[in-house]
Design a protein that fits this description.
15 helices, alpha+beta, 480 residues, three-stranded antiparallel beta sheet, Rieske Iron-sulfur Protein, binds FE2/S2 (inorganic) cluster, DUF455, five-stranded antiparallel beta sheet, 2 domains
């Protein structure tokens, strides 16, 4: 049995649950959930002579596969209950319970559990470190992510103060959605960003806690997502003259661009779920997490200075680029293409440029923006990881080789060079080795691009190249 060091024990005292993402040299992924049931105050343990397994038992650390063996629910929000002389994790979807030690359930199903050991490290000040058994099959399992499960559903809880408040109810009074697909389409059709954020939080909570009828992607009546999600007029036209922004590398403009993260996580679920009924629940767990992150990023970026200090530039007032929209439209025909272009080209590019952006905020003494950007950057690594995970999953199903397939998708679905310099370390963490992206050029022609875009007239309203009349006068500080 092989073990992988995942953390110091002290680090695990910050939360009681953590999601672990492991990847093997062969590019296989496993998502595990770690439950720590002891409280920090219980820390009276007799280590003398106890084995590493005993220490793990004393600290009540249990690890199991993060998806339920019944129908694949995310177990990160399972209830933990004492049952006779055992402790069980109760799945939020259908309430099957699984023994945390053995994985056994009264239903006859069995969850996959992993042994845990706690050892002191004599070469590192005798710090206690936690080790988890690696999955069978695959070599050199690595820990890609150790993410605390927030009890608040978004950590830190985003604020909404800079985004206008809206009236319509979060849950529509007539025909409220009952499946994840219905929520996805409703959220895509919601024009106001505040309501989008509130509905996203609500829908993800319902999904995680088993309060939806189903995911709904296998249903023949699954709703279709809109080709162009609607926006309120005030968010459709920028209110700052492009001339005023031109040449101004202001931090406010950068934050505005960041706040403009779109809703591609909802779109990928709604657009491709029904055409890929074999997508497992773990796909929807990953992308609902991404949807929640996207709404968190909007709030974070829209809520920190200099936005707070420059009330004349609220969200929606400044020009934003439309390249993500274009790429999402161009890839609307193919899940493989969408994963490659949006998640492994655009989002991976974010990994390259974010550190430089963070540095600029740091040099400007803007600690709040640095803090927000660091959260966003860490989340983006997990988004590219999800892109890589599901791209390789799809390639395996289709019997094609991932690197060559990715390069072909970029050749036909992208224009120009995939630009560096590259953040090799963070790309590698996300599964993207240089073989994926080095010396890679998209060869999609103008005509082909226009064909793929089809009748997407709405793009024009968001394009920087379209001059729009300023609706309000905006004064910039000279030295932002
Ligand atoms: S009991 Fe977990 S998905 Fe049904």
């Amino acid at each position: 049995m092989k073990f992988l060091q995942i953390s110091s024990f002290k680090h695990l005292l910050t939360h009681s649950r953590f999601l672990l993402t492991l990847r093997s040299d062969q590019g296989k992924y496993h998502s595990l959930i770690l439950f720590r049931l002891s409280s920090a105050g219980d820390a009276i343990w007799d280590n003398a002579g106890s084995s590493s397994k005993d220490r793990a038992a004393n600290r009540q650390i249990y690890v199991m596969e993060s998806t339920c063996p019944h129908l694949g629910a995310d177990m990160s929000h399972a209830d933990i209950e004492e049952y006779e002389d055992t402790t069980v994790a109760v799945c939020p979807w259908h309430r099957y319970d699984f023994d945390l030690r053995t994985g056994k359930s009264e239903t006859g199903l069995k969850a996959c559990t992993y042994s845990v050991e706690v050892k002191t490290d004599p070469e590192d000040h005798d710090i206690e470190k936690v080790y988890v058994e690696t999955p069978s099959g695959g070599n050199n399992w690595r820990l890609i992510e150790l993410r605390p499960v927030s009890e608040e559903f978004a950590d830190p809880p985003p604020k909404l103060s800079q985004i206008p408040v809206v009236n319509p109810p979060v849950v529509p009074i007539t025909d409220p959605p009952t499946t994840l697909m219905q929520w996805a389409v409703l959220i895509l059709q919601t024009a106001n960003p505040t309501l989008k954020v509130l509905r996203t939080r609500h829908a993800v909570q319902l999904f995680r806690t088993g309060k939806l009828d189903s995911i709904g992607h296998k249903s023949s009546t699954a709703p279709r997502p809109p080709d162009v999600p609607p926006r309120e007029e005030s968010f459709l036209k920028n209110t700052v003259s492009p001339g005023k922004v031109k040449g101004r590398k202001s931090l406010a403009v950068m934050l505005h661009a960041l706040a403009n993260v779109e809703q591609w996580a909802w779109d990928i679920m709604a657009r491709f779920g029904p055409s890929h009924p074999d997508l497992p629940p773990a796909f929807f767990s990953d992308f609902t997490k991404m949807a929640l992150d996207e709404s968190k990023h909007l709030c974070l970026a829209a809520d920190v200075p200099p936005f707070c200090d420059v009330p004349a530039t609220p969200y929606g007032s400044m020009p934003v680029h439309a390249s993500l929209w274009e790429s999402a439209t161009i890839t609307s025909h193919s899940l493989r293409s969408r994963l490659a272009i949006i998640h492994l080209v655009h989002e991976a590019r974010g990994l390259d440029v974010n550190p430089g952006t963070i540095e600029r905020f740091r040099r400007a003494g803007d600690a709040a923006s640095v803090a927000a950007m660091e959260i966003i950057h860490a989340d983006e690594v997990t988004h590219v990881t999800s892109g890589h995970r599901w791209f390789t999953w799809l390639c395996e199903k289709e019997g094609v080789e991932p690197v060559a397939t990715f390069r072909e998708e970029v050749r036909t679905g992208w224009r120009g060079n995939v630009k560096g310099p590259f953040n090799i370390d963070d790309r590698e963490k996300a599964g993207l080795t240089p073989a994926f992206y080095e010396h890679l050029t998209g060869e999609m022609g103008e005509e082909e691009m226009e064909q793929k875009k089809g009748a997407l007239e709405g793009l024009k309203a968001l394009s920087l190249s379209d001059p729009v009349k300023p609706q309000v006068t905006v004064e910039y500080e000279d030295k932002i």
